What we know:
Elements: H1 5-18, H2 27-33, H3 38-65, H4 68-87, H5 92-122, H6 130-158, H7 162-179, H8 200-210, H9 212-241, H10 249-273, H11 276-296, H12 302-325, H13 333-385
Helix pairs in contact: 1-5, 1-6, 1-7, 3-4, 3-5, 3-13, 4-5, 4-7, 5-13, 6-10, 6-12, 9-12, 9-13, 10-12, 11-12, 11-13
Amino acid sequence: MINYKSNIWKLYAIRFFHNLIPAYVIERLFWEQRGMTIQMVVYAEIIYAVTIVLLEIPTGIIADRWSRKKMIVLNAFLGCLQCLILIFATSFWHFALVVFLAGIGCSVSSGSGNALLYDSLLLTNNEESFEKCLGRLNFSDFSALILAALSGSLLASRYPFELNYWLSSIGMFISLSISLTLVEPCIKSTLEEAIPIKRYVSTSIDFFRKNRGVSLVLLSGMVTGSTLTFLDEFWQIHVSRLGIHVVYFGLVSASMMFSRLPGSIFAYILKRKLSYKALFYAALSIFTIGFLYMSLVKNLSALVAIFALCAFSGLIEPLVSGYLHHRIDSSMRATIDSFQSLGLRALGIIVGLGFGFFSSRFDIFGGYGFLSLSCGIFLVYFFISSRNIIENK
C-alpha cells in the first residue's frame, strides 16, 4: 500500500532545509556591498515578478498534467544553483540571473506544493486538516528561518558574508535529496473527463467568475502579500536606518519569523471562531496602520509595527489557501493555485514601481507610506465588496 502520509513529513523537511538559509539575514547588506542600490534591488524584484507572471500558469498546468513531485524537485535544484551563483556574484546581471532562476523555481513549486499536500490528505480522507498541515508547513519554514537568522547574524559579524551562502547551499542540497523521495499522489478528480490542456486557462477563469467570494479572498491575500514582500526584502535597510547594529539583525529576523508562528499554527482554530470577513478586516486594517506608522516614526518603536504585520501575515496565508483548495477540483488544483501566485507577482510589479519611486525620493520611509496607501484603498474596496459573497466556512 502506498504511504501518502509520508509526503506530509517529507514536505515539512523539504521546506525546513530549503529555508535554512543563514544568508537571508545579511542578503540586502551583501547586495549593497556588491554595489546594488535600493532601486537596482527593486528592478531585480521586478525581473523576479515578471518571470513568475510569464511562467506561473504554464508550470501549474504542467504540474497537473505531468508531475507535482518533479516540479518540487526542479525548484530544489534551482535553489542550489542560486546559492552557488550568489557566492561569486559581482554585478547587477549576476543578481538578475539569480532572481530569474528564483522566479522559475517559485513558478514551478507554487501550485505544486499545496496541490501535492492537499491530494495526499485527500487520498487518506484527511483533507479537512489542510489548514492545520499548511500551518505546520509554515512553522517548519519559520523555524528554519529563525535558526538561520540567529546563526547567520553571528557568522556575518565574524566571517565574510560569503560563508553564509556556502552554508545555505548545503541546506538546499539536503532539500533536493529529500524531494527525490516524495510519492506522486494519484489525482482524485470529480470531473467525468480530463480537461484538455488548451482549456485549462479558460476553465480557471470561469471558476473565478462564478466564485466571487474566492476571487475577493485571493485578492486580499495578493494585496497583503505583495506589500509584505517589500518589508521582507528591505527590513535590513530599514532597521539599519533605525541605528540597529548588524549583530542584532539575527534577533530581529528571528523575532519577525516567530511573530508569524501563532497565526499560522492556529489559523484553522480562528476560522472556526470568527468569520473570514472579520479576520480579513482586521488584517487589512493592521497592514494599513502598520505601514503608516513605519513611514512616519523613525525610532525603535517601529519594530512593534513590523512584528504586528508579521503576526497577521502568518494568519492570512493558511486562510487564503484553505478557502481556495476546499472549493476546487484535484485535476486543476496546481493550475488554479498558480493563479494566486500569478496575481501576487503581477500586483507586486505595480506596487514595486510605486515603492521604488517613493523610496528613491524619500528613502525607505516614503516607500512604506506608499504601501500604507495601497492597503488603505483596498480596505475600503473590501468593505464595500465583501457583503454576502464570502462564506464563513
